[in-house]
Design goal:
Layout (H helix, E strand, L loop, with lengths): L19 E4 L13 H14 L4 E3 L11 H15 L5 E4 L5 H14 L3 E5 L8 H13 L5 E5 L11 H6 L6 E6 L4 H10 L5 E4 L5 H7 L3 E4 L6 H12 L3 H17 L7 H9 L16 H20 L1
Parallel strand pairs: 1-8, 2-3, 3-4, 4-5, 5-6, 6-7, 7-8
Helix pairs in contact: 1-2, 2-3, 3-4, 7-8, 8-9, 9-11, 10-11
Length: 312
């Protein structure tokens, strides 16, 4: 797989700079379900202060599926402007059709994003040849590095396996994959079949510990919305091979990761952020808030992790 660094103009990063902890940033909404940009800027400030290595926008946790095309374009532009080259911005530009995906990717490039993160088409079920043609067309239409985004639970079971990724190795700006399949074997195979050259980002917090040890470049982390400093410390401990510390931090976060199943996606993360003092507002309907009972259980977890974080 050909993954030499893509030359960028200006202050855009080379592929070597794409690594580490990238919060799977939520899109805050106000009480009328409009995008709450002040809350978003406050969240980004907290992430950057915690030492994250990138910012993701318009991903799954960012409710891209609930945003209009114009909202997605504006959201990427606002985040790029606010981050102002302090870390790379990963812009979610995937859509159902190739035409719309190209339009969103080109808009992200024009706004100054650093990476296009392209989820597989959803609702429809393209075959492997159609998927390959789709990703090739998107990559050819942009100068941005393209990170494929594999999320079978959210795309009708459509899975981008390791041979598929390796088969796109002749496209220079397809740099790797964000994998939210939860399949550690597949993550290892991505690295094996691309001879460790692919940038592989973990999309499941449950696999951060094992995935980074296997050689993943980093994690696009839902948990980093709530406790960015702890996730950054976990990543740093893994890179420094301080495995006892890394295991302790991984186990500290484990109950929060398990709690994602307590409500309809992605409301639990937003409610956990609220409980941690990082207001993100509601999810857009039809998703509703948690019950009083579930919120109380979530509060116990957030407070326990928060107390440990404050002591360290």
């Amino acid at each position: 797989m050909t993954l030499a660094p893509v030359e960028r103009s200006g202050s855009m990063p080379t592929i070597a700079h794409l690594h580490g902890v990238v919060p799977a940033t939520v899109t805050p909404f106000d009480s009328h379900y409009h995008i709450d940009y002040p809350a978003l800027r406050a969240a980004i400030d907290a992430y950057l202060a915690a030492g994250v290595h990138g910012i993701s926008v318009c991903g799954s946790q960012g409710e891209f599926f609930a945003l209009s095309q114009q909202e997605r374009i504006e959201l990427v532009a606002q985040v790029v402007k606010y981050v102002d080259h302090r870390v790379p911005v990963y812009a979610g530009t995937g859509a159902v059709t190739t035409h719309e995906t190209i339009a969103l990717t080109q808009a992200a490039e024009a706004a100054g994003a650093d990476v296009a993160m392209v989820i597989t088409p959803y609702f429809i079920a393209p075959n492997r040849d159609e998927l390959a043609a789709h990703f090739r067309a998107v990559a050819v239409a942009t100068r941005l590095p393209v990170l494929l985004y594999n999320n079978p639970p959210r795309t009708g079971g459509l899975n981008l396996d390791a041979p598929f990724l390796a088969g796109l190795g002749d496209v220079p700006n397809i740099i790797g994959i964000k994998d939210s399949s939860g399949d550690l074997t597949q993550l290892a195979e991505y690295l094996l079949l691309t001879e460790q050259r692919a940038r592989v980002f973990i999309g499941r917090d449950t696999l951060t510990f094992s995935g980074v040890l296997h050689g993943a470049s980093g994690v696009i982390s839902p948990a980093a919305n709530v406790f960015p400093r702890t996730v950054v410390r976990l990543y740093a401990a893994l890179r420094a091979e301080r495995l006892a510390e890394a295991r302790r931090l991984s186990e500290l976060l484990a109950p929060l990761r398990a709690a994602w199943a307590w409500g309809s996606f992605p409301v639990v993360i937003k409610e956990a952020m609220e409980l941690a003092g990082r207001p993100a507002g509601p999810a857009r309907p039809p998703i509703q808030g948690l019950s009083t009972e579930v919120r109380a259980r979530l509060r116990q977890i957030v407070e326990r992790i928060g107390a440990e974080e404050a002591r360290s």
